[in-house]
Structures are given as structure tokens and as C-alpha cells.
Amino acid sequence: MAVSSVVLNNEVAIPQLGFGGWQVPAGDTAKVVRTAIEAGYRGIDTAASYRNEAGVGEAIRSVGVPRDELFITTKLPNPGHGYDAALRAFDASLAELGLDRVDLYLIHWPMPTRGKYVETWRALEKLYADGRTRAIGVSNCGSSTPSTASSPKRGARSRRARCSRTRP
């Protein structure tokens, strides 16, 4: 199965089609994800809140496809908001996955009413700057999510998190 990619604003290519781990039971995850990779999927999506990152990691290690050919996305759990909490949550996800980096780390739910949106984003920026994730972003944006979160300049360009509403 040949899958096209799109290039993110930081020049990282992400497969347009990926396999999502949402609602895959933890006990079935390794087998299901291994089957997906064997079928040609190269984008694998999971999240700490799905409670199946360990199975995703097991599949990645057992399938025989070089790690650099896979694009692994995981997401920050809701209790992980805040600078230090986000860094700890990321480390926990890497441990569960058994990886030294992920390709995309997302704030799963922005939760702006908690007042930790910007400091959480800054933690993701640190993870990106340290090379622990190749890209960062925000998923599940809604009408109450801030449209931008300022971030410090990196080189000559300023980075911003942007949310656009994707569902009614």
C-alpha cells in the first residue's frame, strides 16, 4: 500500500493515512498494530489516554520495519497539562512505547479553562527543541480553544500553535 505524505511547516513529512489506536483494547493492540504495519500503514496514532501505548511499542519492535519508516504519534493526557506535568507525561509515554522519541506529540485536548494552555505548549516546544519529538501540535480544537499561543522565536521564524475548527 503506497501512502502519500504531506509536509508540515517544519519540513517533517507525515503520512496522509494512518492507523488509529483509539478503542483498540490494550490486550489486542500489539497484534492489531503489527497487522496494520504489515498491511502497509506507516502512520500509527496512539495516546496515553487510550491505555495501549505499550502494545503499540511492542508491535513496532516486533514487526521488522525500520523505525525511521514509521511515523508515531501520541498525545498528552488531560492530567498532564502544565509545564512540568507535560514533560513527565511525555517521559511516561516514551517509557510505555519503549522509544527514545516520537514523530508527533499532540496536546490531546487543549482544555483552555484550566489556564495552563501556554505553559503546556511551552513544554512541547522544549521537547521539540531537544529533539525528543519531530513535530508538535494540538488536536481536538473547538470553539473555546484559543486560536494562537505565542511562542518564543526560533531562529528567524516565530512558531505559533494554531487551532482551526474542524467539526461543527
Based on CA atoms alone, the radius of gyration comes out at 16 Å
> Low-confidence stretches at least 5 residues in length (pLDDT < 50)?
147-168
What CATH architecture would you give?
A: Alpha-Beta Barrel
Number of E-state strands: 11
What is the helix/strand order? EEEHEHEHEHEEEEE
Strand order of the largest sheet: 3-4-5-6-7
Derived structural class: alpha/beta
The outline comes out as globular
Amount of beta strand: 15-25%
Distance between the termini: 32 Å
Task: Annotate the secondary structure layout.
Blueprint: E1 5-7, E2 13-15, E3 18-20, H1 26-38, E4 43-45, H2 53-62, E5 71-76, H3 83-97, E6 104-107, H4 117-129, E7 136-138, E8 148-149, E9 153-154, E10 157-158, E11 161-162
Parallel strand pairs: 3-4, 4-5, 5-6, 6-7
Antiparallel strand pairs: 1-2, 8-11, 9-10
